[in-house]
TrEMBL record:
<feature type="domain" description="Thioredoxin">
    <location>
        <begin position="21"/>
        <end position="161"/>
    </location>
</feature>
<dbReference type="InterPro" id="IPR013740">
    <property type="entry name" value="Redoxin"/>
</dbReference>
<keyword id="KW-0201">Cytochrome c-type biogenesis</keyword>
<dbReference type="GO" id="GO:0030313">
    <property type="term" value="C:cell envelope"/>
</dbReference>
<dbReference type="InterPro" id="IPR017937">
    <property type="entry name" value="Thioredoxin_CS"/>
</dbReference>
<dbReference type="InterPro" id="IPR013766">
    <property type="entry name" value="Thioredoxin_domain"/>
</dbReference>
<dbReference type="GO" id="GO:0017004">
    <property type="term" value="P:cytochrome complex assembly"/>
</dbReference>
<protein>
    <submittedName>
        <fullName>TlpA family protein disulfide reductase</fullName>
    </submittedName>
</protein>
<dbReference type="GO" id="GO:0016491">
    <property type="term" value="F:oxidoreductase activity"/>
</dbReference>
<dbReference type="Pfam" id="PF08534">
    <property type="entry name" value="Redoxin"/>
</dbReference>
<dbReference type="InterPro" id="IPR050553">
    <property type="entry name" value="Thioredoxin_ResA/DsbE_sf"/>
</dbReference>
<dbReference type="InterPro" id="IPR036249">
    <property type="entry name" value="Thioredoxin-like_sf"/>
</dbReference>
<keyword id="KW-0676">Redox-active center</keyword>
Amino acid sequence: MKSDALILTWRVLTLCLLAMTWACRSEPPPSYIRLAGPAPVLADVPGSRALLVVFWASWCPPCVEETPQLRALAESPPEGLQVVVFSHDADARAVESFFKGPPPPDFHLRVDVGKKVARSYGVEQLPTSILVVDGRLVARFPGPRDWDSKAMRRLLERLTREPADRAAGPAD
């Protein structure tokens, strides 16, 4: 009887230690491509030290997949960061139909007529997001992302805080 209780106690302690060890693990940072150089100038965007410029479309399945996480990030971004979404939809009505009304105001959404902005940023696939800090290209995030994850938020906070001369360094 005592040995059964002792075995059970050890199993419970072992499970607790394993759970604490797992909870203390840090997630690896999300992948991205390091960029350097001046960013193309964007007219009529929020004045902010850092912009996450997102190229997106309502008809793009990976874009639709990341929309809830992108929305959460846009509604509560790291300090100094604003999200700006450029839609590849034909017109604003298609976007409004997707959102069942006006797009979220925190998206600062614009329809990229003729895909001019996408071309100026070298965007060839959707979704693609580019982090611009102090007018300089910092990082490219191709494909859908879990924008609201702790790891992504930590990465965005770190990238928006680093000095301009670090932006030309290697990717993490």
